[in-house]
Please model this.
Amino acid sequence: MLEQSDEIFNLQVGGEIGKYNSLPVEYLIEIAKNLQNLLQTLAKVNVSDGSTIDLNNFKVELTGFQKGSAVPQFIFTPRRRITLDANIDSQRQLVRRKFDELVEASGKGDFGRVRELYPDAYRRNEVVDGLYNFVNSFGKSPVNVVDINTNEGNEQIIPLYKVRPFAKEVRDRLITHVIENKELETIEEVSVRKVITTFRGGERLKTKTIEEYSDKQAAISIAPDRIVSDSHTYHLIGPLRCLFEKEDDYFVLTCELLDLVGTGLTMEDAQQSFAEEFEFIYNRYNTLSDTEMSHRLKAIKIILNALIKQVETHAHA
Model:
């Protein structure tokens, strides 16, 4: 557990960067910039939808540098922007807690925990980008988040957890490719539409699918009444409106209502990815109490539980 103030971030840098108990200016600037970006991203995706937020309150400032070791100390800016209905201290405490959970899990190589903390693709993509840039600010130098204990004039550095870089391949595995919707243009071109019925294992899966292809892209509106993962079939009370899009080599299946995205090199891969995401957030959100969730996530949890009529476990699961 942290014993230092939630407002303070002490980063002990060793290795080549910090071997002279100092930090080159270019590294210090990069570290501060990426730390601030990560904190502002965490504020944006974690602070409750019902609370006003000013991201300027999550900027950081350098307040000190411990002698005898390369330990820059950052704090949340004292130049606060007061908002009408927000408790800035509570917001900062939440962001600090999320920062510690995220960076500590990353430092242990527990990227499954990162996925648990941010199961929905939209938030996870932003957070993983910010995390990747921050933890890789230090090159290969060992870094710890530390506490500074002052006792009878002597300052003792207490390591709390490690900050470790991770590879771009890991970042790419954590990120889901999201293709933004584009406004439709009125153009003259030939297109083909058809209805698709999907079969799995000889069983007919009822879908309401309208498919439109052009020479540039494919856009598909689909409304399945069941979601089939490897281990379960989730029977829904009615069709779930989703959108298929294709750009370059990726198929993307999106449900804006649930903040869900599935991707793949084929339509089947995208559907399977979507089913895995659906199953994951259904199980995950139902293990969290309402106090652990934002208004948006609580709403999605309610919608999920209302949508699912029956959960069928596959015989081989």
